[in-house]
Amino acid sequence: MQQRLPSLIDPPVAFAHRGARAHAAENTLESFRLALKLGATGLESDVWLTSDGVAVLDHDGVVKSRLRKQAIRDVSRASLPAHVPSLTDLIEACGTGFHLSLDVKDATAGPTVIHTVREAGADLLPRLWLCQTTWQGLAGLRELSDEVKLIESTRLARIKEGPERRAATLASEGIDGINMHHSDWTGGLVALFHRFDRCALSWDIQFDEGLQAAFRMGIDGVFSDWVDRMMTVYSTEIGPP
């Protein structure tokens, strides 16, 4: 059996993508609760701001209103469909004993997210992972909290200067790590980012073989729709959560 390489985050985080998406309606409190019940050590969602500045959890930032669709940024919190939870709702329903990865789709949402978590459950801050598609969009958030983890979400093909230089840039700019599709990662790349003390996260891992490979190469966090599969492999490779 291949020996598992060390991860920076020990134990690594098992993120339930949009909650227990393969088992329940995504991005709902039911789905988030179920993910934790199934053993996930982290939850993942996308975060947007409503027209009145409330951080809410939804994938594409668009909701149906009667016969038309509206962007969440144009709708007040009170006018959203009941199934769309706010960040505060999530913390009140699920507590703070888990990691929380939020894809900051609304570029203006970062400060509100940090403030909301600080008010609703401050002990979650060290386990709050804010992700965005460019590290530049995250850089301004560091001055708001030295506890929050800031993560660039990208693909290897988009890193034109090469992964080593990108790792060095992330380190110098206070960005804690990088999240790439599982097909981009190798053990050597994980080790490279770890050499710069940057976390390596891997998304869209849906099958046992991919989860096993990710844990063995020292990945610091995985994202999966299938929480039951993820946690079965996690228990075998890492140990019970």
List the helices and strands and how they pair.
Blueprint lengths: L12 E5 L11 H9 L4 E8 L5 E3 L4 E4 L2 E4 L15 H8 L4 E6 L5 H12 L6 E5 L16 E5 L9 H10 L4 E5 L5 H9 L3 E5 L4 H9 L4 E4 L2 H11 L4
Parallel strand pairs: 1-2, 1-11, 2-6, 6-7, 7-8, 8-9, 9-10, 10-11
Antiparallel strand pairs: 2-3, 4-5
Helix pairs in contact: 1-2, 2-3, 6-7
Question: Can you put this structure into words, describing what you see?
Answer:
The two termini are 21 Å apart. This protein is α/β, with parallel strands linked by helices and 241 residues long. The radius of gyration is 17 Å and the shape is globular. A hairpin with a 5-residue loop joins strand 2 (42-49) and strand 3. The mean pLDDT is 96. The chain has helices at residues 29-37, 87-94, 110-121, 163-172, 187-195, 208-216, 227-237, and strands at 13-17, 42-49, 55-57, 62-65, 68-71, 99-104, 128-132, 149-153, 177-181, 199-203, 221-224. Helix 1 (29-37) packs parallel to helix 2 and helix 2 (87-94) runs parallel beside helix 3 (110-121). Helix content is 28%, strand content 22%. An 8-stranded parallel beta barrel has the order 1-2-6-7-8-9-10-11, surrounded by 6 helices. A two-stranded antiparallel ribbon has the order 4-5. It contains 7 helices and 11 strands.
Give keywords.
241 residues; alpha/beta; two-stranded antiparallel sheet; globular
In short:
The protein is α/β, with parallel strands linked by helices. The protein is built from seven helices and eleven strands.
Helical content (DSSP H or I, runs of 4+): 25-40%
Number of helices: 7
* Biggest sheet record: 8 strands, parallel, barrel
Task: Please state the structural category.
Answer: alpha/beta
Principal-axis shape equals: globular
Distance between the termini: 21 Å
- Gyration radius from CA atoms, angstroms: 17 Å
Strand percentage lies at 15-25%
Low-confidence stretches: none
Give the helices and strands as they follow along the chain.
EHEEEEHEHEEHEHEHEH
How many E-type strands? Answer: 11
Estimate the mean pLDDT confidence: 96
**Lateral arrangement of strands in the main beta sheet:** 1-2-6-7-8-9-10-11
